[in-house]
Amino acid sequence: MVDIFTRIKGMPGPLGQYQEFADGYYMFPKLVGEIGPHMKFNGKEVLVWSLNNYLGLANDPEVRKADADAAAQYGMAAPMGARMMSGDTVYHQELEQKLAAFVGKPKGFLVNFGYQAMISIIDCLLSPRDVVVVDKESHACIYDGVRMHIGRKFSFKHNDMADLRGVLTRATKFAEESGGGILVITEGVFGMSGELGKLDEIVAMKKDFDFRLLIDDAHGFGTMGKRGTGTAEHFGVEDGIDVHFATFAKSMAGIGAFVASEKEIIDHLRFNMRSQTYAKSLPMPMVMGALKRLEIIQTRPEIREKLWTVTRALQKGLREKGFDIGKTEANVTPVFLSGTVAQATQIVVDMRENYGIFCSMVLYPVVPKGTIELRLIPTAAHSLEDVERTIQVFSEVREKLDKGVYSETEINNQRINF
Ligand SMILES: Cc1ncc(COP(=O)(O)O)c(C=O)c1O
């Protein structure tokens, strides 16, 4: 027998192993100031490319006022209790109805956190007889939801439609034997790469296979499609999406999430989704604030246009300078460089300390060994000057990398004033 605490102390985990030098700098960094492209890190001004504040709503004056007014009127406690027991309000219902209508579904259900909700939605939709099929690069919350499923589970190679077809053939056999159904889950926009889930091709497969499709459009909501309703709108396949999910953590610059579908399916979730039935309702300022954010998304399309102006300028500029930015079709912009983890740490420190650029790095196992991903998140709040400066800095840093300025073996673990 082992003492659980002794085991934990000896196994810090894949990220925790770097805690000693990474904590507070590479991980858990503290950005100070009003949310936006220009904040302070380590006491210095930095140009920030790490925030999912896609539409810049975090600091929109109307949004700030709606949040503050609701906090003043209701406090953070109201309503008390779970929705089902004592925590429902007409505003919660108004918000979910408006969100559902926006994404073209008959009914919606508000949920407290996207991550928890996705786990719980998957758990609630599936019976042990069902077969679940997910894209291999799905977000952790999808994987964790799938882990709850005690029936058959399959994954298909990321965005590989031939592989999905093969998996669906096998899944169909299992479902026929077990007497269950098939749920396919993918994302609208993949948050690490900016690639789009091939929703059009997946929906087209409904001609050949019987399945229901659940999409996590966390990154597409507010950014994709003519009206900003998301990636399904971008592809024109709204009707082919059976269950539509998105979080408020990105374009909505808030907390909370929603799921939308047919009335009977949402009612099933309302009465059976454990993360909602057994948890407190979303506080009033979040709900009132979300209503305001949704209104802005619907009435100020120029904000989304600005996001795309900045995004196109950044991606075009990087491509013209020969950077590999993968297959992004969204605002998420990965920049892939060849190098070691040690080099990645030095680049990040150099950028933050000497060039005043704050971006996040993504390393193995999310990207292959020997690849460094620097992930840029353009927002509507960035300017074209921000873009120009950043492309210039990236070019200088790449030149230094090519010249061997950054050591291949020495992790930059200097604890710089933090
Ligand atoms: C694809 C995806 N799904 C779900 C979530 C979780 O949402 P939340 O932050 O609301 O818990 C995230 C990250 O925020 C995400 O990127």
Structure description:
The longest helix has 20 residues, at 301-320. Strand 7 (182-187), helix 8 (199-204) and strand 8 (212-216) form a beta-alpha-beta unit. The mean pLDDT is 95. This protein has helices at 4-10, 19-22, 61-74, 90-102, 114-125, 140-148, 161-178, 199-204, 231-235, 263-272, 274-277, 284-299, 301-320, 341-355, 384-402; strands at 31-32, 38-41, 44-48, 107-111, 131-135, 152-156, 182-187, 212-216, 243-247, 257-261, 333-338, 357-358, 360-362, 371-376. The protein has two domains: 13-48 and 301-417, Aspartate Aminotransferase, domain 1 (Alpha-Beta Complex), CATH 3.90.1150.10; 59-299, Aspartate Aminotransferase, domain 2 (3-Layer(aba) Sandwich). It is 41% helix and 15% strand. Helix 3 (61-74) runs antiparallel to helix 12, helix 5 runs parallel beside helix 6 (140-148) and helix 13 runs parallel beside helix 15. The two termini are 40 Å apart. Bound molecules: pyridoxal-5'-phosphate. Pyridoxal-5'-phosphate is lined by residues 113-115, 118, 139, 141, 187, 191, 216, 218, 247, 249, 257. Residues 113-115, 118, 139, 141, 187, 191, 216, 218, 247, 249, 257 line the site of pyridoxal-5'-phosphate.
CATH class of the largest domain: Alpha Beta
Estimate the helix proportion, in percent.
40-55%
Q: Label the overall shape.
A: globular
How would you spell out the order of helices and strands? HHEEEHHEHEHEHEHEHEEHHHHEHEEEH
Q: What is the CATH third-level topology name of the largest domain?
A: Aspartate Aminotransferase, domain 2
Bound molecules: pyridoxal-5'-phosphate
Mean pLDDT: 95
Work out the helix count: 15
Number of domains as seen in the coordinates: 2
Task: Give the structural class.
Answer: alpha/beta
